[in-house]
Amino acid sequence: MRPTNTDTISVILAGGYSRRMGRDKGLIEIGEYSNFLKKTVRRIGILTEKVYVSLRVEQISEYSKYLPSESLIVDADIPVKGPLKGILSSWKFLEGKGFSEKSILFLPVDMPFVRIRTLKRLLDSFLFEDSGVFYRSKTGIEPICGIYSSHCLSDWFRSFETDAGGEFSLQKRLAKMTPKILTLPSEEEVYFRNINTGLDL
């Protein structure tokens, strides 16, 4: 199936430390021939032309077994922590590749069961003037599975160049924005979840 969107680039966020799981979540097996990484790459690759994976430098050797090195984005040396580090590192990397005007659809690697229609709805709803598009579920707004505009990420990155003590919380940053918020259909909520421990599988 051809990708349906060429204006947005996808990035799978896989650089977390997976402390609660006790091992790299991207490499957790699903059945005999798949794992979290392969499943999320296949799903999101149906929707966008380019798919990258954001990770830490020490993950390169394992992830290179599944993806070409040019698809891997290593965390940049920036004064940022948490998922925001992967998000801003991805924007900086893509800017260097000449994609500074592209919006980015982020998907955490530990959300391998999210429905394709759930992701497609984000893409279909995004307009160039939007700062981002995200879902609201029973637990609130989900900032790690959503679309961020290039101008939003550019502003955030520049803010850390002048203020190293900036806000790391994505929830708090989104609260200061006016992104487009979609309501997650109740029948999709069971798939729209992070796998944090073995009990979640």
UniProtKB/TrEMBL annotation:
Top-rank taxon: Bacteria
Keywords (A to Z) from UniProt: Cytoplasm, GTP-binding, Magnesium, Metal-binding, Molybdenum cofactor biosynthesis, Nucleotide-binding, Nucleotidyltransferase, Transferase
Pfam assignment, any one: NTP_transf_3
Keyword Amino-acid biosynthesis: no
Name of the protein this chain belongs to: Molybdenum cofactor guanylyltransferase
A GO MF label: metal ion binding
Domain called MobA-like NTP transferase: residue spans: 11-170
